[in-house]
Every structure is written in C-alpha cells, then in structure tokens.
Specification:
Blueprint (H helix, E strand, L loop, with lengths): L5 H13 L9 H10 L2 H9 L5 E2 H8 L3 H13 L3 E6 L2 E6 L2 H11 L7 H14 L1 H7 L8 E4 L7 H4 L8 H6 L4 E4 L2 H8 L12 E4 H9 L4 E3 L1 H14 L2 E5 L7 E5 L5 H7 L12 E5 L9 H5 L5 E7 L13 E7 L9 H4 L6 E5 L10 H12 L2 H5 L6 H14 L2 H8 L4 H14 L9
Antiparallel strand pairs: 1-3, 2-3, 4-8, 5-6, 5-7, 6-9, 8-9, 10-13, 11-12
Length: 444
C-alpha cells in the first residue's frame, strides 16, 4: 500500500468525506477529528475506495490494495462506524460513512473500554458549534434534509386523523419492520461530556430499523430489541415530550431519533444557527383554538424550538367566549415559519386547545433512500460523485468535473428540483443505475 504523509493525507480524507452525501467543510477542528479517528492506513483506504456502496471485489479492483489487508482494514472501519457495510443478496458491500448520519453518530454510539469518548465529544462539539457544517448544507435554502419530523399521533385533531399516511405515523413505521435496535443517543452522549446536557432524557433511545439496525447490531454499535420494546420506547418519548425525527423517506425508514431541544444537533441547527430547513417539517402544523385556551403557557415551555411565544392578545369578541370580551389575555402565538409540526406542544395542553392540523402547503418527502440521496447530493453539488464513483479513474475525474459544473448551474438545479421535472429526473437516474447493474440501490 502506497503511503501519503501527514496533514496532506488527512486533507485528502477530509475532501473525500466532504464530497459524500453531506458537506463537511475543512478546518482545524475537522482535521483533529479525522486524525483522532482514522489511522493513516484507514485514511488511505477511504480515499481510494469508491464514493458509493461497492462490493469487496470492486473496492479491491479500484484501490489495488492487497485483498486480505483491505478486508481487515474495512472490518476495523466498520467496527468504528467509519464505513457502512450491508449484505446485498449475500454479497457484502461497503461505503465510506459521511459525517452525518455516520461518523459523528456512530463514533458517539460506541461502547466498551479504552474509548476516548470525552475527547471525541469535545472535538465534535467544537466542529458543530462553529456552524460551518450547517452553513455548507443549509445556507442556500436546501429543501432535502436527512431528517423529517414525525408528529405524535395524540397531537393531531381527530378531524385530520384520517389524512395521516402510514409513513407519518411512528407506530406504523415500527410495525412495518421486523428488525430493531436501540443505541446510545450520540447527541446526548456528546453533550454530557461537554456539560451541556440540561435534561433528564434517556441515553438509550436511538432507534434503527431493518438493514440499518442489522449494521449497528453486527458492529456492536447498538443492541437488538423486540418490536414491543420499540413501541414502549415510543410511549416513553411521548411521555417525556421528545421530538421524533426520522429518516426523510416514505419507504424503508432506517432510523428514528428521539430528540430534546438542549442536546439534539439537528434542532440546535434551528435553535442556535437559525436554519429552519435543517429538518423537513411534518405535513402538520400547530394551531390554537383560542376559545378553548386557558393561557397557562405550558405549550410555550414545552416547544423544543421556541416557536411559541406567550403574548397579550386583546379579545376581539370573535375568537374568545363572550364572558372574556374586551379582556387582555396571555395567549400562545405560533411562529408558523419555524414550527416543525412535532406535536410536543399539544401533549402538554390539557384542554387540547393547541393541536396539529394539516399544512396548507404540501410537504414533499422522497419515496426511497435512493431518491433522497439523489436529490440531497444534487442540492449540495456532489451528485456527480454518486454517478461516477471511482476516485482513481482519470476519465471519471474529468467527467465528474464536467457534470458537476453543469449540475451546479442554478437554472439546471432549479429545473431538476421543480415539481414538473423532479419525477422524470429521478426516473432517469433510476434507469441509469439499473443499467450499471446496481438496481438493488433503488430499493433501499
């Protein structure tokens, strides 16, 4: 195996990770994370392996690394959560872990002896707090996030209940799967080491399903649980008023986070850094029936993103009961521009004056992981790496540059993401991937 040296090696590793599905801009904090987590040999493997999910045979062919050595290093990387491995029709496939969801989460989910969890937490916290990663992924109004909010069923007005689709129901997501895992919440674990965990929320509720659960279980990053235990976990999160943020797909949901406002890095992207698009909203939005509201303020305290403010509202005689006419009352006012439709506010409202109703504007969630990755990388300027994924091919490097420049043109990106052309574009991408013999990717 040929060796690169020092900071140049880790700069190339950082560039590779930055060109995956989520942008991870380079700075000293990022360098320190990479230096702490990857050995030089591991870094070389990541740099040379394809961008997308590939078999051991293909990785061996593209990297020209001794097969036995390569497999050993890939095994080590999987155990550390730095490479994701899946069994596809009996053949093991590997993919470099992106920063999110991947390097950060899986590192902070690791358990066992001789782990520098505190050191890693401090490194990640510095990197996240600087805000560069949020800016790189969300500052241009990107619509496709990794995560979407799943509303609490009990928070939706009965009249709207029939309009809830199965992928919008947490319990339905659980019941549609047959393999489950629970692991340590990476965000709470990180915040606990930097003294910024200000809640009593449990650590052991990071949920995964299907092939994602299988990956975590095999690599000792989470423990296997039953469907009943997973449903109990949902009930616990409802009782604790946690936000449920799931994989932003309609089919084959792979994970569901149970988030609090103080620890969750996704919600902090909204709360602290001001990017309302860091998580895709549910199809619902909070709404107050002022005639039923007693002005207790519990909803405002419960809201994990500060979208509700108690204000003095003067009764007009239309919204409030007659006995309250011309009185000034403290009432909740919802900032509908940032409300994510989680329903946590409603869980604390005893008179059920505040509940979720259907949004007027349609919220689009990709159907599959394949669709999400295509749209997500198109928005972030890295789709060409998924199409031409061999980093060691000079011809592919040229074509990546050409296609990448074309796809980054604002009119092109806007057209492909539009309601009129998005479906046709995704179908074309699906056809292309099938012609490459990777049709299985479209079913993930």
């Amino acid at each position: 195996m040929g060796h690169m040296a020092g900071k140049d090696l880790y700069k190339k590793l950082g560039n590779k990770i930055d060109n995956l599905t989520i942008k991870a801009p380079w700075n000293d904090a990022f360098f320190n994370i990479l230096k702490s987590l990857y050995s030089e040999k591991e870094a070389e493997v990541i740099i040379k392996m394809p961008y997308s999910m590939s078999s051991l045979d293909r990785i061996h062919k593209t990297t020209k690394i001794n097969r036995a050595v390569l497999e050993q290093i890939l095994d080590q990387l999987c155990e550390k959560g730095l490479v994701i491995d899946l069994d596809i029709d009996g053949v093991r496939h590997f993919m470099p872990s992106p920063m999110i969801i991947g390097i950060f989460e899986f590192t902070m989910m690791r358990t066992g002896k001789n782990l520098d969890s505190k050191g890693w937490a401090e490194l990640f916290h510095k990197y996240m707090s600087e805000g560069g990663m949020y800016k790189a992924n969300f500052a241009r109004g990107q619509q496709v996030s990794l995560m979407r909010t799943v509303p609490h069923d009990d928070s939706i007005r009965p009249s709207s209940y029939v309009e809830i689709l199965d992928y919008e129901k947490a319990a339905s997501i659980v019941r549609s799967n047959d393999k489950f895992s629970l692991g340590i919440c990476s965000c709470r674990h990180e915040k606990s080491h930097v003294n910024e965990k200000h809640c009593d929320s449990p650590m052991d509720n990071c949920a995964a399903f299907g092939y994602a659960a299988d990956y975590l279980i095999r690599n000792n990053l989470a423990k296997e649980v039953s469907r009943e235990q997973m449903l109990d976990n949902l009930d616990r999160s409802r009782d604790l008023g946690l936000v449920m943020n799931a994989d932003n797909v309609q089919n084959n949901v792979t994970f569901m986070c149970h988030c609090c406002g103080c620890c969750c890095n996704v919600l902090r992207g909204l709360n602290i850094h001001g990017y309302s698009n860091v998580v895709v909203t549910s199809s619902f939005i909070a709404n107050v029936e002022y005639a039923e509201c007693i002005g207790c303020g519990k909803c405002a305290k419960a809201c994990p993103i500060g979208a509700i403010e108690m204000k003095i509202v003067e009764d007009s005689g239309d919204e409030f009961p007659k006995q309250e006419k011309r009185k000034k009352k403290m009432k909740p006012v919802i900032d509908k521009g940032i409300c994510i439709g989680c329903g946590v506010c409603s869980l604390s409202c005893k008179p059920f004056a505040l509940s979720l109703i259907k949004r007027k504007q349609r919220v689009i969630h990709p159907e599959t992981t394949f669709e999400r990755v295509v749209l997500q990388t198109l928005e972030r300027g890295t789709l060409q790496n998924q199409i031409l994924d061999n980093p060691n091919s000079f011809s592919q490097a040229f074509m990546r540059g050409f296609i990448g420049a074309f796809l980054k043109l604002p009119p092109v990106k806007k057209t492909l993401m539009s309601d009129m052309f998005r479906s046709t574009f995704l179908k074309s991408m699906e056809t292309g991937i099938k012609l490459q013999g990777k049709g299985w990717m479209t079913k993930l």
